[in-house]
Structure formats: structure tokens, C-alpha cells
């Protein structure tokens, strides 16, 4: 039996319950609306800066210094998988439990909300994260993403989720306490529970555990960011010890006037469109390979950044100009194909059906719809069946691909000179 229930506790978190009694386990994800994008906050009409890496720092701090000790170790002893993750928009704490889900859920909520970290805890966390940062082997594409932001946006800043070593060193107790008290208020949380559980039992646990927290309500605002359609810079490059240059085209598309449902649908359509143009079976890809303009796959993606979709198309190549011309020409022609559209529709339907083999694969797109598009709905086969070629074609033709920038990761030659 499957059932979805969505509600909000009084002055508490949003709760999403996805019950599927055919499963052998249950999952829980507790989201805090605090991520790498949060760089400023207004409290009592005063604007405070937030250093890069703060959301990620607090994630580590709470997990490694919980009321149960190191939560990863504690859950591992109980054969429960637990971890955290910080993204641009949110911080997530999650568990995957088979035998002790009810008690594990209580502990998860307490790890995030029943905290008492010390100055020493913060200093030890700083050491661990600096070590992690220093051991990070491949920052090439993070650095490339940074200049993507610098080209695309004037006011939306790169979400340096990990922060730099210099940022981490500046973090102190007062800074952490300030950010925790503001962003970890319970009304700023969302709890998603999925799998095999009894709804009434879980509802009672959630209500009872949250009722034990007496957190002070702090009114705050996030400074509004106004961003126009045009890109700030047409081109920028970085230099790395790589074997071949990497070139990427970045398209900035304003979706401010689209509803949440329309954004979700367009996300599907853009995946169809980019796949048709640039996957390994496409005419563009095969021409680029046969002409030896590129030797590897074309990387393509669509991401939502505030009120924009950002499309990225890149590959390793030393023939920069030819690659840029061909990709840009393909994008601006906006060619669509009915037969290919129907094939990709069928593939989407199959993917939704195949998700049923895994609870995680079923729930993860549901979570993405909620967080990314503010749509409290799970993908269904009938939603895909309603997609029409006429609507798809109209949606693509209405898009403006003129706001484009090029970012390059260039090879350093053996003699120390820069390629290109």
C-alpha cells in the first residue's frame, strides 16, 4: 500500500510522509533551508555576512559532536546508514534504517535540534575540515564552476560550499551559534519520511520529539537578489595541469514568469532537448568526433539557480572556436524531432516504472521536486503521458538562448606557458 501525506506542524517543520508498506526499510531526510548560497542575513534591520563554508561546517559539527557522540559511529553500530550533505540551497541529514527506524528517527531529529556544542568542538571540527580540504585532489571543475558564476551573474554569487582554508580558519563559536540559531529554527526545516512505517506512529513521534524543543524564534530576512537576463562576461578562463583544454558554453534562461509546475515540466523538456542534440547518438556529437574536434563525450546539464535555468555544454577540445560555433549554432536553431520526443517520453515512463525497484530512486526525485521546484508531487507515468510534442516544441522555441558565456579550463604546457 502506498500513501502520501503532507502537512506542517504548528510552528514547526513541514512533514512529508510517503508510506510504501511493500518495502523492507524506511528512510528519513531532515532538511534545513541553509546552504552554500546563503552569504548574508538581515536581523533587526542589520545585515550580517556569512562566511563561505558555514553551512557545511555546521553539518559536520552537529554530526560529529551530537548528544550521542559521533553520530556516524553510533548509527553504524546499530547497522543504520546515516550521513549529511550540504548543497547550494539546503543541508540534509538522512538515515536508512531497517531494524530500529522509530528510535533512529528520534535520534536524527535530536542530532539536528538538541545540540550543545562547545568552543573545543568547533576547533576540532575546523581541523577536520581543513584536513579534508587540503586532501581534496580535484578542484578543477569547482574552479571552473566558479568562473561560470562570474560570467553568468552580476549579483548571484558562487556558492563556495566547502569554503576555503582561510574561511574555515576564521570561524568561531559566536559565528556558528549566530548562524545555527537563525537557520536551524524548526520552522526552517522539512522532514521527509518514506518506506515501510505506520503513519500514525511516525506522526506521534515527530510531534512528541519536536514538542521538546524550546527554541527562541528569531525574525530574519534574506537580502533580495535582483538579477537581469544578460550575462556579465562573455568569456573567462582558468589554467590547470590537465592533458587537454576543456571548453564549456553556459546559457542563462530566465524562468521568473513560469509557475512551479511549468518549471518542472520545462526541466523535463530541456533534458529531452539537450539529449537529442548532444548525446552519443546525436548528429552533432558524431560530427565533432569524426572531425576530431573532440575525442570525448559532450557533457551537458540543466540546473536551476534561483529564477534561472542554466544550461551547460562542454567537452575536452583544442579546437575551441569550431566547438563553440557548432554548439551555439545547434542551440540557436532549436531543432526538435517528433520521433525523438516520443522516444524520450517512453524512456521517462520506463525510468519512473524502474524507480520502483529502489525506495531511494523513487523518493529522491520526489524530494527534488519539493525542494527545487516547490512542487509537492511525485512523478507519475500519467504526467509524462500528458506531454505533447506541440507543447514541447512551443516551449523550446520560446526560449532565449542569446545570453551565453564561454568558460575554459586551459592546459599548462610543460615549459610553464599557457596553452591558447
Q: What composes the largest sheet? A: 6 strands, mixed
Please count the helical segments.
Answer: 15
Cα Rg: 23 Å
Compressed to H and E, one letter per element, the order equals: EEEEEHHEEHHHHHEHEEHHEEHHHHHE
SSE map:
Elements: E1 2-8, E2 14-20, E3 26-32, E4 40-43, E5 46-49, H1 54-64, H2 71-77, E6 81-86, E7 91-97, H3 101-113, H4 119-135, H5 140-152, H6 165-170, H7 173-183, E8 189-195, H8 199-211, E9 235-240, E10 246-254, H9 260-278, H10 283-290, E11 299-305, E12 308-316, H11 320-333, H12 338-355, H13 359-373, H14 381-385, H15 389-397, E13 404-411
Parallel strand pairs: 2-8, 9-13
Antiparallel strand pairs: 1-2, 3-7, 3-8, 4-5, 6-7, 10-12, 10-13, 11-12
Name its key features:
six-stranded mixed β-sheet; 420 residues; 15 helices; 21% strand
Give your account of this protein's structure.
The mean pLDDT is 94. The chain is of the alpha+beta class. Helix 1 (54-64) packs across helix 4 and helix 3 (101-113) runs parallel beside helix 8 (199-211). Strand 6 and strand 7 (91-97) form a beta hairpin. It has two domains: 2-211, 2-Layer Sandwich (Cytochrome Bc1 Complex, Chain A, domain 1), CATH 3.30.830.10; 235-411, Cytochrome Bc1 Complex, Chain A, domain 1. It contains 15 helices and 13 strands.
